[in-house]
């Protein structure tokens, strides 16, 4: 006796063995992580095709999709690596798969010593949000001189944010 | 193996051209396109096709419509757009050129202007 699970793949309902379900899910997530943000459509196509393959390989809609079927469908579609490099898209994904992601770098809220104009606060903030320091500097400048951001915020951040230790200096 | 790598790169480059070429003959849906590419040993796995089709569609080279299939859910039928046809014509031309250029490099030019090379009898 085996546990099964009902899923909707490409708007069709399938009953999968639990191990088959897990394998398929990992596979689809892995593939999706290699797509660009606007490739929802490609993912749909792939899902639809998977559904089609399952239909072909399970003689009756009453039958359960087994791990072997899922494996062979995956072999037909290709390994996730064939879809390109894994990209980091959102925090959520990082949290699910922190170990799988090779490009994942730890978020540090520190002031770099090698890339700074005044205290390195903007560079630190930029690094934290993984953006360009110049952009953050421009926004800060505009907010301070034309907006309502107080210069004190900068000074307090300068004091509060620890700097990179000299030993941890980026060697990029 | 380095040769394999180069081979894979070459295939990748002409895959888009081949897809347009297949669609120029008749409208088709993904599994059928895949079957043709597989028969010609252009691709081995299906997955690589979908991102290309979507990209070409977004570039305006292809359009698609949903069509009922005798078994299972409706299928996405792709067809070449006017722009796709123009692009294909250009690619056809540059493919001919490429073949000719490679031939020229491999076997020497027809109108040979390198005088030092004597034909070997």
Question: How would you describe what is shown here?
Answer:
- The complex is a heterodimer of chains A (172) and B (121).
- By secondary structure, chain A is mainly alpha-helical.
- Chain A is built from seven helices and two strands, in the order E-E-H-H-H-H-H-H-H.
- Chain A has a two-stranded antiparallel ribbon.
- With 121 residues, chain B is mainly alpha-helical.
- Chain B has a single domain (3-116), classed as Orthogonal Bundle (Arc Repressor Mutant, subunit A), CATH 1.10.10.10.
- Helices cover 58% and strands 12% of the residues of chain B.
- Chain B is globular and about 55 Å long.
- The relative contact order of chain B is 0.12.
- The chains are: A mainly alpha (172), B mainly alpha (121).
Share of helical residues of chain B: 55-70%
Outline type of chain A: elongated
* Straight-line N-to-C gap of chain B: 36 Å
Residue share in β-strands of chain A: 5-15%
Number of helices of chain B: 4
Tally of contiguous helical segments of chain A: 7
As for the CATH topology of chain B, it is Arc Repressor Mutant, subunit A
Structural class assignment of chain B? mainly alpha
* CA-based shape of chain B: globular
Enumerate the spans of chain B where pLDDT stays under 50 for 5 or more consecutive residues: none
Please tally the β strands of chain B and state the result: 3
Average pLDDT over all residues of chain B: 84
């Amino acid at each position: 006796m085996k546990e099964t699970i009902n899923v909707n793949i490409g708007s069709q309902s399938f009953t999968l063995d639990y191990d088959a379900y897990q394998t398929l899910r990992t596979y689809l997530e892995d593939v999706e992580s290699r797509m660009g943000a606007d490739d929802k459509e490609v993912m749909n196509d792939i899902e639809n095709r998977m559904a089609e393959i399952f239909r072909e390989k399970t003689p009756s809609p009453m039958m359960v999709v087994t791990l072997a079927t899922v494996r062979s469908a995956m072999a037909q579609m290709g390994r996730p690596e064939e879809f390109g490099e894994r990209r980091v898209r959102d925090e959520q994904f990082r949290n699910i798969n922190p170990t799988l992601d090779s490009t994942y770098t730890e978020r540090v809220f520190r002031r770099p010593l090698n890339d700074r104009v005044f205290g390195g606060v903007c560079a630190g903030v930029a690094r934290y949000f993984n953006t360009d320091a110049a952009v953050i500097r421009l926004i800060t400048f505009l907010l301070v001189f034309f907006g309502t951001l107080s210069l004190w915020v900068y000074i307090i951040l300068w004091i509060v944010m620890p700097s990179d230790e000299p030993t941890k200096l980026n060697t990029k | 193996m380095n040769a394999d790598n180069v081979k894979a790169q070459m295939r990748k480059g002409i895959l888009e051209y081949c897809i347009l070429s297949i669609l120029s003959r008749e409208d088709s849906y993904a599994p059928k396109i895949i079957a043709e590419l597989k028969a010609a040993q252009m691709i081995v796995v299906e997955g690589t096709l979908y991102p290309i089709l979507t990209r070409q569609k977004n570039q305006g080279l292809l359009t698609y419509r949903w069509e009922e299939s005798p078994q299972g859910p409706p299928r996405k039928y792709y067809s070449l757009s006017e722009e796709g046809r123009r692009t294909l014509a250009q690619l056809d031309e540059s493919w001919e050129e490429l073949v000719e250029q490679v031939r020229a490099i491999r076997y020497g030019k027809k109108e040979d202007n390198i005088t030092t090379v004597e034909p070997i009898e």
